């Protein structure tokens, strides 16, 4: 279907004949397919009509633009010469002169279809910020902790022999267990006279994510209907790979205070590697699959380096400046969305004759945006149009030159097409 100019939405400002043709195409799908195949063939072999030389002033205008470009090019060449002379004078400073040439290395750019497209990482507790080297790893508290396996610390235990963590010689990092199973500190106020003590200590501000590294958190003890009557010294906490945490406990302010273990977090110990333990209310916890996040870099900017006249079903932009991700195909002139997401496109022309010039952006064979210009007599205008949309993976996007004349030279960059993936989104 690609390259089809059929399947078009109805539009104003269109000749009646053309409208008729369109509706015919829409109604008869079989014909549409034939049309598509036909037009795909014609695209490749279109030729430009000869330009009428009636608009002399316009020619002069474009000639002036061209002259300006040429003089800029000349200036650039002079600068390059100067730079080369400079780097020759300083052979030890610059091994390789800085390339000031504006001509792009098209050979290397156009063969960029095998670029690394995107990488997948786990959302949430991603890899970010955990790039410690080997020496840091050997000191990583996630691997060097003391297991604190004391069932009485659980939130569903009452006070029997009130424990006081002030009497403990705390040293280094600890990981909490309940009957041998991993457990976490409560992130909410805990009822007094529980956790085997009088004023149970809970973690204020919740647990960190892996990417946060070691964080400092306040610790509060609940007493006399005040969740933070005891403001115990802060402790350090670190999230570890495998859904557990380590704590650097210190002596609490008073007796009888003890660090608590939230029995509701026992479920977190059962989370798979691809899951994270989540809680909205800090009461119920559950394992949730990590969202896959795609980091995609899709950007392209291409130009057509010559005049275009009349109807061209698909502009074969062949000068490629940027094709990050290789989603634009120079052979077909089609951009194909490699992932679902929000995309922004732009396309432009510079009119090259009096009358109407229309370029259309075509998304999945629907004409969605026009770059329309209507100039009288001896003027020339540039017109840039933009379009932003959410596309499904595989959607095709290209530009049609529906009518009129567009002016461009190999260096004018007046007939351009470009776009970027702004955000990856599942649809
Ligand atoms: C242009 O690309 C070719 C082929 O990749 C490479 O050998 C050459 O060094 C490039 N030239 C410049 C100026 O980058
Ligand atoms: C606390 O909860 C655990 C897990 O639900 C349970 O096995 C245990 O018996 C409870 N302990 C008390 C003292 O209720
Ligand atoms: C392109 O169009 C301009 C303006 O009509 C004209 O001056 C120029 O000669 C044309 N270039 C080519 C290569 O046809
Ligand atoms: C540029 O395009 C817009 C949108 O199609 C159109 O409304 C406007 O008239 C055009 N500008 C000129 C100078 O033709």
Give keywords.
single chain, 427 residues, alpha+beta, Jelly Rolls, five-stranded mixed beta sheet, five-stranded antiparallel beta sheet, 5 helices, 24 strands, elongated, binds 2-acetamido-2-deoxy-beta-D-glucopyranose
Mean pLDDT: 79
Q: Proportion of β residues?
A: 25-35%
Category from helices, strands and their pairing? alpha+beta
Separation of termini?
22 Å
Count every helix, treating DSSP H or I runs of 4 or more residues as helices.
5
Chemical compounds bound to the protein: 2-acetamido-2-deoxy-beta-D-glucopyranose
Strand count, sense and barrel status of the largest sheet are: 5 strands, mixed
What percentage of residues falls in helices of 4 or more residues? 10-25%
Using DSSP, what is the number of strands? 24
- pLDDT < 50 stretches: 1-18, 20-50, 91-134
Number of domains: 3
Radius of gyration: 34 Å
H/E element order: HHHHEHEEEEEEEEEEEEEEEEEEEEEEE
Shape: elongated
> What order do the strands of the largest sheet run in, or round the barrel if closed?
8-7-6-5-9
Verbal overview:
This protein has 3 domains: about 1-90; about 105-290, no CATH class; about 300-425, Jelly Rolls (Sandwich). α1 (about 15-25) crosses α2 (about 30-45). The strands form 7 sheets. It has a 5-stranded mixed beta sheet, with no helix packed on it. It has helices spanning about 15-25, 30-45, 55-90, 105-110, 135-140, and strands spanning about 120, 145-150, 175-180, 180, 200-205, 215-225, 225-240, 245-250, 255-260, 275-280, 285-290, 290-295, 300-305, 310, 320-325, 330, 335, 340-350, 355-365, 365-375, 380-390, 395-405, 405, 415-425. The chain has 5 helices and 24 strands. Residues about 1-20, about 20-50 and about 90-135 have low confidence and may be disordered. By secondary structure, the protein is an alpha+beta fold. A hairpin with a 2-residue loop joins β6 and β7. The radius of gyration is 34 Å and the shape is elongated. The structure holds 2-acetamido-2-deoxy-beta-D-glucopyranose (NAG) (4 copies). One 2-acetamido-2-deoxy-beta-D-glucopyranose (NAG) binds next to α4.
